Structures are given as C-alpha cells and as structure tokens.
Amino acid sequence: MVCLYTQKKNDIVSKTIRIGGVPEHYNTPIHLAIESGAIENEGLKIEWKTYEGGTGEMRDALINNEVDICAILTEGIVSGILQGVPAKIISGYVKSPLIWGIHSGTENPIKDHKEIYDKKFAISRIGSGSHLMPIVDALNNDKKIDESQFHIINNLKSALVSLEKQETDVFYWEKYTTKPYVERGELKRIGEYVTPWPCFVLAA
Predict the structure, then answer these.
(1) pLDDT at residue number 41
(2) How are beta strands 89-94 and 150-152 bridged, if at all?
(3) Of residues 165, 179, 98, the one with CA closest to residue 132
(4) Which of 76, 122, 148, 170 minimizes the number of CB atoms within 10 Å of its CB?
(5) At what angle do helices 156-164 and 175-183 cross, to 10 degrees?
(6) What is the rounded CA–CA span in Å between residue 130 and residue 195?
(7) What is the DSSP letter of 167?
(8) What are the pLDDT digits (tens) for 118-131?
(9) Are the folds of 2-96 and 99-194 the same?
(10) What are phi and psi of 97, to 5 degrees?
C-alpha cells in the first residue's frame, strides 16, 4: 500500500495516510501491517478508520475528504464514480468474489430466496452493497425492485433489530460476517448471492 503513495523510498515524506474499511476479515492484512510497524518503517503513519455503515458510508467519507484510501466494494465505488463521486480506483485488493448471505428475521414467514423481490429490504446506505446487490440479483432473475422497497438501517446491528421486528424482510450482508448471528438463531439465512466480479478494490 505504501507504493500507492510513493515510487521510491528516498522520495517518502512524513505523511499520515487515513485508510478506511469495514470491520471484516478482509482487512486483516492491513491491520497486521499496521501492528507490525512494517508501514511505519517506510516513513509513513497510518490512521485506520472503521466504517460499520459499509460502502455507502465510505463513499461519503471520500467525498468529504475524511479518508485518503478505502478498501471498498467494487460495485459500490464503480457506481459512485459513474454518479460523480470524486474518487478513482488505484488498485485491486481482493480478487475473489464476495458471497452475500441473504437473510431474514427468524420469525419472518419467508423461507426461500425466490420469495424476496416484492419485500422490504434493509440497507446500510444508498449505494452500499446491501443496496446494490439485491438490484443486481433481481435483474439476473428477470425481476425488479422499486426504490421504495429499500429502508436505510445504517449498520448490521440495526438490521438485526429491524428484521426481528419485521419492519424489513430481507438483508444482504457478507456471509461469514453474519454467520455467528445465524448460528445463534438471531438471523435466518434464506439464500446466497455470489458477485460476478472481484469483491474489493482500493479507492482514493
């Protein structure tokens, strides 16, 4: 990541780089690099910022100059750039696709992924993966989701409450992040959706 800001070690100047990402296992390499001092040894300081609101929140952070680099969902930053977000993709990050768990509340009568397209969707932000991926999923199944079906809940914790109260019916979130909640019976997984592209890039 240092090489994204410098071409030669001799050219490095003292700088704090603000890096943002979600609280998920994908960002473990960055945390390990920070904790080991490997980046600081190159003359740079790293300030890590966690964004529980996901890609939509990170897009806002880039717009508001609250962060220099984000490890962000590919679909979120591409759609943001097309909509005028003043950012650019500077590197790939995670090449494998993301497996989205499709969830509902444990008491919700929905039993199958095929039943969801006319339901209410919990999303962290407009432009986040939890917003974009249901749209992509629906298109791939010749369905359409109206924007009025999306309800902003900000983060995973709020989604759990919303789904339990059946204020919303469906929530897309990274499968392994939600796995503990599914195993404890706090969420019901009714399907999965695998992105047809690499899941994370670095944007600045």
Answers:
(1) 85
(2) unpaired
(3) 98
(4) 148
(5) 50
(6) 12
(7) S
(8) 999 999 999 899 99
(9) yes
(10) -70, 160
Structural domain boundaries of the chain? Answer: 2-96, 99-194
Sheet containing 200-203: order of strands: 44-50, 15-21, 69-73, 200-203, 89-94
Task: Name residues of the chain where pLDDT drops below 50.
Answer: 2-13
Q: Quick one: pLDDT at residue 163?
A: 98
Residues composing the chain: 204
Residue 12: how many CA atoms within 13 Å on its side-chain side? 17
| Cβ within 8 Å of residue 168, ≥6 positions away | 119, 120, 121, 122, 151, 153, 159, 162
**Identity of the amino acid at 12:** I
The pLDDT assigned to 93 comes to 97
Q: How high is the pLDDT of residue 18?
A: 96
Pick the CATH number of 99-194 from 3.40.30.10, 3.90.1150.10, 3.40.190.10, 3.30.450.40: 3.40.190.10
Topology (CATH level 3) of domain 2-96: D-Maltodextrin-Binding Protein; domain 2 (3.40.190)
Q: Could you report how far apart the first and last alpha carbons of the chain are, in Å?
A: 12
pLDDT given at position 39 = 84
DSSP letter, residue 186: S
Q: Are 81 and 88 in contact (CB under 8 A)?
A: yes
Q: Given this model, what pLDDT does residue 14 score? A: 54
